[in-house]
Design a protein that fits this description.
single chain; alpha+beta; 4-stranded mixed β-sheet; 8 helices; binds glutathione
């Protein structure tokens, strides 16, 4: 059976759980990281020397790095659905996965850390405002893209929607003043209505 190590409060673990649920996979999730520890034990470090979550083990194959895990699961279990067979659609899905990891998440991350993981008295409003402003600019770009398609890679939901869906879910749960991005809001509502997204969208930030 597929095993997933990682606490659900991690955006990177959320991607893997959502992907596995989309694919209807049976899996065991083992809490690790944060208050659950485990990541610094020799057994865990043998699986992931970065001491980070998530990690998966699938039929003896161990893999870390959340977007690589989403790609692997989609390719192995979701060909033609989460894993587009058309190479350009797949490249488009890939592109938005990379954008989530290298652009959107780093932009909004400081707001999350300040507002959710930092005691009120120690927060820096300037850091929050910079992250908010940066997040809005990136969402405007995504909004323009979604203005002409239902999902990030076109008409169908693919692996490309999952990492970004987790980050945008985080964005909408942050206690921030937000601008309106109608296409992103429509897309996010469609994602929220998916049964497989429930574990993520019903979770409070912590
Ligand atoms: N690039 C890695 C980043 C993994 C990462 O930073 N994980 C964080 C949680 S989001 C972590 O393990 N933090 C330490 C901990 O939870 O103990 C990935 O996408 O898998």
């Amino acid at each position: 059976m597929l095993k997933i190590w990682g606490r659900l409060s991690s955006v990177n673990v959320q991607k893997v759980v959502w992907c596995a649920d989309e694919l209807g996979l049976t899996y065991e999730r083992i809490d690790a990281g944060g208050k659950f520890g485990l990541v610094s034990t020799p057994e865990y470090l043998a699986k992931n020397p970065n001491a980070l979550v998530p990690v998966i083990e699938d039929d003896g194959f161990v893999l870390w790095e959340s977007n690589a895990i989403v790609r692997y699961l989609a390719a192995r279990y979701g060909e033609g659905s989460l894993w587009p067979t058309d190479i350009r659609l797949r490249a488009d899905a890939d592109r938005w996965m990379d954008w989530q990891a290298t652009s959107f998440n780093p932009a909004i991350g400081p707001a999350f850390w300040q507002l959710i993981r930092t005691a009120p008295g120690k927060r820096d409003p300037a850091v929050i405002e910079t992250a908010r402003d940066s997040g809005e600019k990136k969402l405007a770009l995504l909004d323009a893209h979604l203005g002409t398609r239902d999902f990030v890679a076109g008409r169908s939901f693919t692996m490309g929607d999952i990492p970004l869906g987790c980050s945008v879910d985080r964005w909408y749960k942050l206690p921030l003043a937000r601008e309106s991005h109608l296409h992103v809001e429509r897309w996010y509502a469609a994602l929220r209505s998916r049964q497989a997204a429930r574990q993520v969208v019903e979770l409070a930030l912590s």
